[in-house]
Amino acid sequence: MNPSHKDFWFVPLGGCGEIGMNLNLYGHSESWLMVDCGVTFENDSSSGGGGNLVEMPDPMFIANRSQALVGMVVTHAHEDHIGAIAHLWDQLKCPIYTTRFTREVLLIKFLERGIKPPIILVAPGEQIIMGPFQVTWVPMTHSTPETNGLLIETEVGKVFHTADWKVDSAPVCGESFDSKHMESLGALGIDAIICDSTNALQSGSSESEAALFNGLLSVIEDAPGRVVVACFSSNVARLQTIGNVAHVTGRFLGLLGRSLQNMHLCAKKAGYLNENFNCIESAHLGYLPPNEVLAIATGSQGDVGAALMRLASDTHPNLSLARGDRVVFSSKTIPGNEEAVERLVEALENLGVIVIQAEYKSMPLHASGHPCVEELTHMYSSVKPSISIPVHGEEKHMTRNNRIASNAGVRTQLQGRNGDLFDIVHAKVRRKAVPVGRLRLNKHNGSLEQVSA
Ligand SMILES: [Zn+2]
Ligand SMILES: [Zn+2]
Question: CA of 68: how far to CAs of 27, 33, 134, 182, in Å?
Fold first, then answer.
């Protein structure tokens, strides 16, 4: 299993045929390039959900040839793309290339594990030679800052790896989606696109981040008491929008939950959240008049021990909610977490709290970070690749994504799963070409255990 200078291979070890734990490999001329290295959260049946088991791809295949690994590119700061790096570092030990914000998030994880992998800072749009690969960072819009797609060029082919993306003309943080840039990729002659399938079953287009301001304002400005907004902490644009609402409604802003505090720091260091985002100490929230409180909280998925669950059980050290206060879910429930979220909502309602969920409002309170049918069509028609290879989705998402590609004029569709080898030069898939598996993190001692299939 050694790519020659005539080969250009794509080999996913995770994230192909599933949503989560992305780990992609590209092979050419005796060398390998890794793109992303993430985790997935599985529900522990004994605790009734909340996604508290951390699992990741078994990197054995690439760990066994780590001398040939020229580097790892990290496309963005979501857990399904970065979460496994610190845990698998001992087996990989290659230089890591990423942008400012993602670097800050990684540094916290490395500090927690007491490791110091070399991180090479890349600017969006930059081009770097890594062994026989020439990699160009292509800024994309998504639900966390500085997400980048990658143009990966070798002497035998060119691939566009989209990473997670959506078309957002007003993303609140960072530059808007650049359609012209996609067309310029098309002009290069792209052999294959490796593309996000998460929302391939959704018609139309995703909502823009900027559209959420009015929706969030409408449920916060007329609230007689406290308002707590639940959202994903890595969505810096959402944090900014909530900060803007705090600013115009004259409420004090507080952050509840460690991951929010961490993300706040990372965002500040990378140059975000500088306007209308003046947080007070969360310990002060409890002393304010209720109608002056706007808190952002972690735990939108019903996570045990997260801030929202502690508010629901009235065991949060900094804030107690009372009858008539509002909790707004600026998030969607990830499949598998429905029961946990239901329990959380019930507990909040038992306190007399009014719960407002994004799914049930006519004004948007949440925007997805992934492309729907129209956005995918736009991508395929701009980049005009010869081959489409869907990833970041289950079978049904990838099948639909390939149909969209075909309808948009992409000639060849390849579909496979983790461990398959996609031969870009010959437009073929070799099934089960490399060994794959899953490792589970033992939370007590940090060790990794094989998960039996
Ligand atoms: Zn992802
Ligand atoms: Zn993502």
Answer: 9, 9, 16, 31
Q: How much is the pLDDT for 361?
A: 75
Tens digit of each residue's pLDDT (9 = 90 or more) over 269-287: 999 999 999 999 999 999 9
**Is pTM beyond 0.90 here?**
yes
For 127, residues 6+ apart whose C-beta sits below 8 A from its C-beta are 134, 135, 136, 137
Contact 143, 235 (CB under 8 A): yes
Can you identify the CATH homologous superfamily of domain 9-204+368-451?
A: Ribonuclease Z/Hydroxyacylglutathione hydrolase-like (3.60.15.10)
Tokens of 75: 């496309």
Closest CA to 253 of 221, 222, 228: 228
Buried b (16+ CB within 10 A) or exposed e, 126-160: eeeebbbbebbbbbbbbbbbbbbbbbbbbebbbbb
Quickly count: other Cβ atoms within 10 Å of residue 239's Cβ. Answer: 28
Q: pLDDT tens digits for 34-50?
A: 999 999 998 776 655 55
Ligand 1 centroid vs 314 CA: distance in angstroms?
33
Tell me how far the alpha carbon of residue 297 lies from the centroid of ligand 1, in angstroms: 22
What residues form DSSP beta bridges with 54?
A: 41
The Å distance, Cα 394 to ligand 1 centre, comes to: 13
Q: Could you tell me the distance, in angstroms and rounded to a whole number, from the CA of residue 78 to the centre of ligand 1?
A: 6
Enumerate the domain spans of the chain.
Answer: 9-204+368-451, 223-360
Q: What is the pLDDT of residues 334-376, one digit of tens each?
A: 888 999 999 999 999 999 999 999 877 788 999 999 999 999 9
Which residues are CB-contacts of 452 (< 8 A; sequence separation ≥ 6)? none
User: Ligand 1 (ion): which residues have CB within 5 A?
Assistant: 80, 164
Report the C-alpha gap between 435 and 427 in whole angstroms: 21
For the domain covering 223-360, report its CATH number. 3.40.50.10710
Which residues fall inside 5 Å of ion ligand 2, going by CB? 78, 164
